Prior knowledge:
Largest sheet: 7 strands, antiparallel
Number of strands: 7
Number of domains: 1
Oligomer: single chain
Radius of gyration: 16 Å
Shape: globular
Order of helices and strands: EEEEEEEHHH
Number of helices: 3
Amino acid sequence: MILQALSNSGKDVPEYVRHPVIGPAVNLQYALTTGKPYVAYGFTVWQDHVWLYVCDDDYPSLWYPTMHPAALFRVLDPHLSKYWVFGHHPDTPGKRHLFVVSFPEWAGDQEFYERLLDRSEPDIRIFQEYKRLMDEEAEGFRSSIESRDSG
Protein backbone atom coordinates (compact mmCIF):
# COMPACT_ATOMS: atom_id res chain seq x y z
CA MET A 1 0.00 0.00 0.00
CA ILE A 2 1.41 3.36 -1.01
CA LEU A 3 0.21 6.49 0.74
CA GLN A 4 0.73 10.19 0.13
CA ALA A 5 0.97 12.61 3.04
CA LEU A 6 -1.74 15.25 2.87
CA SER A 7 -0.64 16.99 6.04
CA ASN A 8 1.79 16.73 8.93
CA SER A 9 -0.34 18.68 11.39
CA GLY A 10 -2.33 17.44 14.36
CA LYS A 11 -4.98 20.04 13.51
CA ASP A 12 -5.88 17.91 10.47
CA VAL A 13 -6.61 14.85 12.60
CA PRO A 14 -10.34 14.41 13.33
CA GLU A 15 -11.33 15.77 16.71
CA TYR A 16 -12.67 12.41 17.91
CA VAL A 17 -9.17 10.95 17.49
CA ARG A 18 -7.57 13.67 19.59
CA HIS A 19 -7.18 12.82 23.25
CA PRO A 20 -5.37 15.09 25.71
CA VAL A 21 -3.31 12.25 27.17
CA ILE A 22 -2.94 9.46 24.63
CA GLY A 23 -4.00 10.90 21.28
CA PRO A 24 -2.54 13.43 18.89
CA ALA A 25 -2.70 17.01 20.07
CA VAL A 26 -3.88 19.78 17.77
CA ASN A 27 -0.40 21.38 17.82
CA LEU A 28 1.49 18.16 17.09
CA GLN A 29 3.70 18.15 14.00
CA TYR A 30 4.19 14.70 12.49
CA ALA A 31 7.48 13.83 10.79
CA LEU A 32 5.83 13.72 7.37
CA THR A 33 6.45 15.74 4.22
CA THR A 34 3.25 16.89 2.55
CA GLY A 35 2.99 15.37 -0.94
CA LYS A 36 5.63 12.70 -0.28
CA PRO A 37 4.74 9.03 -0.84
CA TYR A 38 5.18 6.52 1.99
CA VAL A 39 4.94 2.74 2.07
CA ALA A 40 2.59 1.33 4.72
CA TYR A 41 4.19 -1.51 6.68
CA GLY A 42 1.02 -2.31 8.59
CA PHE A 43 -2.10 -0.83 10.13
CA THR A 44 -4.39 -1.09 13.11
CA VAL A 45 -7.53 0.55 14.50
CA TRP A 46 -7.15 2.53 17.70
CA GLN A 47 -9.52 5.13 19.18
CA ASP A 48 -12.00 4.19 16.43
CA HIS A 49 -9.59 5.37 13.74
CA VAL A 50 -7.29 3.62 11.28
CA TRP A 51 -3.61 4.15 12.08
CA LEU A 52 -0.93 3.40 9.51
CA TYR A 53 2.64 2.37 10.27
CA VAL A 54 5.13 4.15 8.00
CA CYS A 55 8.82 4.96 8.10
CA ASP A 56 8.40 8.70 8.33
CA ASP A 57 11.00 11.44 7.91
CA ASP A 58 12.67 10.43 11.19
CA TYR A 59 13.73 7.09 9.63
CA PRO A 60 16.46 5.78 9.87
CA SER A 61 17.21 7.74 13.06
CA LEU A 62 14.17 5.88 14.33
CA TRP A 63 14.73 2.28 13.29
CA TYR A 64 11.05 1.33 13.32
CA PRO A 65 7.84 2.39 11.56
CA THR A 66 5.72 4.88 13.47
CA MET A 67 1.96 5.01 13.80
CA HIS A 68 0.16 7.88 12.06
CA PRO A 69 -3.58 8.61 11.76
CA ALA A 70 -4.96 7.66 8.35
CA ALA A 71 -6.53 11.13 8.09
CA LEU A 72 -3.08 12.50 7.27
CA PHE A 73 -2.83 10.44 4.06
CA ARG A 74 -4.51 9.63 0.82
CA VAL A 75 -4.05 6.19 -0.69
CA LEU A 76 -2.07 6.22 -3.93
CA ASP A 77 -2.13 2.47 -4.37
CA PRO A 78 -4.62 0.37 -2.38
CA HIS A 79 -2.96 -3.01 -2.96
CA LEU A 80 -2.32 -4.78 0.31
CA SER A 81 1.13 -6.25 0.67
CA LYS A 82 1.35 -9.94 -0.12
CA TYR A 83 3.36 -10.20 3.12
CA TRP A 84 0.49 -9.01 5.31
CA VAL A 85 -1.63 -11.21 7.54
CA PHE A 86 -4.32 -10.41 10.08
CA GLY A 87 -3.45 -10.68 13.76
CA HIS A 88 -6.12 -10.53 16.46
CA HIS A 89 -5.22 -10.12 20.13
CA PRO A 90 -8.31 -10.20 22.37
CA ASP A 91 -6.34 -10.27 25.64
CA THR A 92 -4.93 -6.76 25.55
CA PRO A 93 -5.19 -4.57 28.67
CA GLY A 94 -8.74 -3.39 29.31
CA LYS A 95 -10.04 -6.30 27.18
CA ARG A 96 -9.85 -4.04 24.12
CA HIS A 97 -9.51 -6.25 21.09
CA LEU A 98 -6.35 -5.28 19.28
CA PHE A 99 -5.72 -6.23 15.71
CA VAL A 100 -2.71 -5.61 13.53
CA VAL A 101 -2.38 -6.21 9.82
CA SER A 102 1.28 -6.60 8.91
CA PHE A 103 3.87 -9.32 8.32
CA PRO A 104 3.35 -12.57 10.28
CA GLU A 105 5.96 -12.01 12.99
CA TRP A 106 4.35 -8.69 13.93
CA ALA A 107 0.68 -9.51 13.37
CA GLY A 108 0.99 -12.78 15.26
CA ASP A 109 2.85 -11.47 18.30
CA GLN A 110 1.43 -8.49 20.19
CA GLU A 111 4.85 -7.94 21.85
CA PHE A 112 6.79 -7.70 18.56
CA TYR A 113 6.42 -3.92 18.17
CA GLU A 114 7.45 -3.29 21.79
CA ARG A 115 10.58 -5.39 21.28
CA LEU A 116 11.28 -3.47 18.08
CA LEU A 117 11.05 -0.18 20.01
CA ASP A 118 13.37 -1.66 22.64
CA ARG A 119 15.99 -2.31 19.90
CA SER A 120 15.77 -6.10 19.92
CA GLU A 121 18.34 -7.04 17.26
CA PRO A 122 16.46 -10.12 15.98
CA ASP A 123 13.25 -8.09 15.64
CA ILE A 124 15.06 -5.20 13.95
CA ARG A 125 16.50 -7.67 11.40
CA ILE A 126 13.04 -9.14 10.80
CA PHE A 127 11.54 -5.70 10.25
CA GLN A 128 14.39 -4.59 7.96
CA GLU A 129 13.96 -7.68 5.80
CA TYR A 130 10.20 -7.17 5.44
CA LYS A 131 10.76 -3.46 4.85
CA ARG A 132 13.11 -4.33 1.98
CA LEU A 133 10.57 -6.78 0.53
CA MET A 134 7.64 -4.36 0.86
CA ASP A 135 9.67 -1.49 -0.58
CA GLU A 136 10.46 -3.68 -3.63
CA GLU A 137 6.81 -4.64 -3.88
CA ALA A 138 5.74 -0.97 -3.67
CA GLU A 139 8.21 -0.06 -6.40
CA GLY A 140 6.43 -2.58 -8.65
CA PHE A 141 3.09 -0.97 -7.81
CA ARG A 142 4.54 2.49 -8.56
CA SER A 143 5.79 1.29 -11.94
CA SER A 144 2.35 -0.12 -12.84
CA ILE A 145 0.68 3.17 -11.80
CA GLU A 146 3.12 5.19 -13.90
CA SER A 147 2.58 2.90 -16.92
CA ARG A 148 -1.20 3.13 -16.53
CA ASP A 149 -1.14 6.91 -16.14
CA SER A 150 1.18 7.46 -19.11
CA GLY A 151 -0.71 5.18 -21.48
